[in-house]
Amino acid sequence: MSALLTDLYELTMAAGFVAAGKHRDTATFELFARRLPPNRNFLLAAGLAQALDYLATLRFTSEEIGYLRELPQFARAPEEFFSLLATLRFTGDVFAVPEGTPVFPGEPLLTVRAPLVEAQIVETYLLASISFQTMIASKAARLAAAAEGRSVIEFGTRRAHSPAAGTLAARAAYIGGCLGTSNTQAGFQFGIPVYGTAAHSWVQSFPREEDAFGALQSLLGESTVHLIDTYNTHEGARRAARLGAPLWGVRIDSGDLLALSREVRAILDAAGLPAAKIMVSGDLTEERVRALAAANAPIDALGVGTDLATSGDAPNLGAVYKLVEIKSSGENRPTFKRSAEKATLPGAKQVFRYEDRDVIGCSWECIGCGDNSSVQALLSPVMIQGEIAGRLPSAAEARARATASIAALPAAIRSLDPPPEPGYPVTISPALRELEEGTRV
Amino acid sequence: MSALLTDLYELTMAAGFVAAGKHRDTATFELFARRLPPNRNFLLAAGLAQALDYLATLRFTSEEIGYLRELPQFARAPEEFFSLLATLRFTGDVFAVPEGTPVFPGEPLLTVRAPLVEAQIVETYLLASISFQTMIASKAARLAAAAEGRSVIEFGTRRAHSPAAGTLAARAAYIGGCLGTSNTQAGFQFGIPVYGTAAHSWVQSFPREEDAFGALQSLLGESTVHLIDTYNTHEGARRAARLGAPLWGVRIDSGDLLALSREVRAILDAAGLPAAKIMVSGDLTEERVRALAAANAPIDALGVGTDLATSGDAPNLGAVYKLVEIKSSGENRPTFKRSAEKATLPGAKQVFRYEDRDVIGCSWECIGCGDNSSVQALLSPVMIQGEIAGRLPSAAEARARATASIAALPAAIRSLDPPPEPGYPVTISPALRELEEGTRV
Fold first, then answer.
1. Residue B94: which H helix or E strand, with range?
2. Between 2.60.120.10, 3.20.140.10, 3.40.250.10, 3.40.50.300, what CATH number should domain A8-135+318-347+378-405 receive?
3. Does the beta-carbon distance from A162 to B19 stay under 8 Å?
4. What ipTM is given for this predicted complex?
5. Which of A16, A248, A282, B85 has its CB surrounded by the most CB atoms within 10 Å?
6. pTM above 0.80, yes or no
7. Of B131, B215, B339, which has the smallest distance from its Cβ to A254's Cβ?
8. What are phi and psi of B191, to 5 degrees?
């Protein structure tokens, strides 16, 4: 990935830091969400693996540096800036919440401690990586809950914000609780289960629907899912039933899915195919999934596209990356911002998770340490001096963590409905409060 | 880009087409939007360049084919399928509406005519490429109109759906009418003007705000934009004003932007800096931009992030890619779909644009030809037998086309408010209607 994939001001600031001789100051930035998006009781952290890949491979090509030299914004930049870019690597430390962990506003998902110039340049990419996957994983967790035990499969690449976003959405959706994805690249790259059989064009490419079904079944056997709504769903169901086993089942992609699923279930049962399953798809939303589950629809699996791959009801997270500490020769200064509605707390932080509440403290605190409690410190080192620390969990491991840690949340937070105010309790430790009051003076 | 970046069912169907001996049938697919998203009077076509790049470079690696071989869905696939993938190239013809052209529901943005197996496999990628950039370009056109002559700069990469989506959003936003972007990669890759100076972290990294401003100005000269809201916007404006020229101006990123822009304007004017400009940013939406313009806010430029890069009020387009014609030995068969609310019209089409209405006809029709009228046929060949036909317009050329063709739309369609029902008139030619009625029988 190109190192130029960043906002230009990160690079003008980098040039300025070099000009001011501050580029080797050690800066600490934290990435967090200021608030929960609408309809979300928690966020599910995801995207760390891609963020670390980026940091581990960050470098500028000479062609890219040549491009910057020609921009008016760099006309007065010191030559040292360009030579710094030519050898720039990310050499800092990164602390992060593991993928698949529920997080709340104000809690850092990621802390970067690095020479100022490095920590600054990576802001844009880190934000886009982590907030996108976190947003999708959070949405997937809701869809999985809404389906009440039915399988949810991610079908949204074609509606994602670019093909690359589709692949990352598939990964995040899997972490959040989907059974798998239709995106083959995500299967190949991340080891995620992939699903898919045939589209309407398959049926249309044969003169008769029954020929299309027969050809599919001889190819796919027990993986066969007949798409039965190209012409008439009931007729399609009867044609599929006449072919009998082996098949997985049928898919309905349009119409009144509740009524049709019941009628198709009856057709399959009457044909002696009680094990044949029913999948539904077609512009499904969380709300529609919930309604189908509430009506006890005889549906085994749901393919969800747009609403999942774009987080339709809350298509952005609004995460930020804020400087919280800067250390130059002899001076260690917590920083903060006081602007309207965008205030930040100073200093590097840690998140301490109790069974039913979180405490945000200073990074050096050790709340609950040694008293044999179940308090977890959520942030741990994942990159040390530019090297990834240990093996990163796979997408499957992150998914297992998500399942377990969502189950451990209080019922009101796990619920699809809004929790009683003020939601999950997140407080500030006395030491952090004291630091904040000190810097405000 | 990996050829696996597609839905698995495209590949299972491909295997099925090989098994059925149909993979060399010539298929025609059309890519179009079924309806306009909310708050849109038209769509602005974009994303074609990336779609054609993909088609021109499509190929499977042996590692990717090895992955497919291990999937249960391909356990019975004929060996010929795998050998076909090993040498697969896109060899078809593509017809498209040029980037920067307004389009309406039902009108193909892209027509693919290729051997069935090729045309099928590319569906997912083409949809994700074209519908994402079309969605963003359409949103950018609205923001540019809302700003009433003020410059709009795309600031949204950090909030985009992945870093790669941010770069493509920058391109599409520029085509749609933005002045440029903060995304440096988009500047490098697509020749788009880039903008950016400094963030709050720049100010915070200096002990005093005035030091931060001074250092920035000596680096950037007349490109300097002081970010004045880190601590107190009025004080920030006064500190910036004390430094005087050369500078571009100041940026306000929080608070009541209307009131602050007026107060800051007064501060700059009083300091003898009437030429210093004001930029605003900070969670700007189309609605807020409109309100600022309506209030005649003394604002010169607006940086718009999330709402633009995610098309916040309509974050998906719902475009589809439908088989409209299939030609096997001796048989040329228009295809269609009759399912509830998802019916499609059969046969390859052309879009004929009059001054104030469109007619969708059959691809072989030549409506308005030869009568010296101003009727334009919107779709033209852009790829012939897998080779890109001629030079593709640059992003800047697409932007110029967009500006001119939006200006040529009827005022009610250009407007930010909904047009009188039924919107822009799009009718079906008699020949297409006849074809539809023929296939319905």
1. strand B93-96
2. 3.20.140.10
3. no
4. 0.96
5. A16
6. yes
7. B339
8. 70, 30
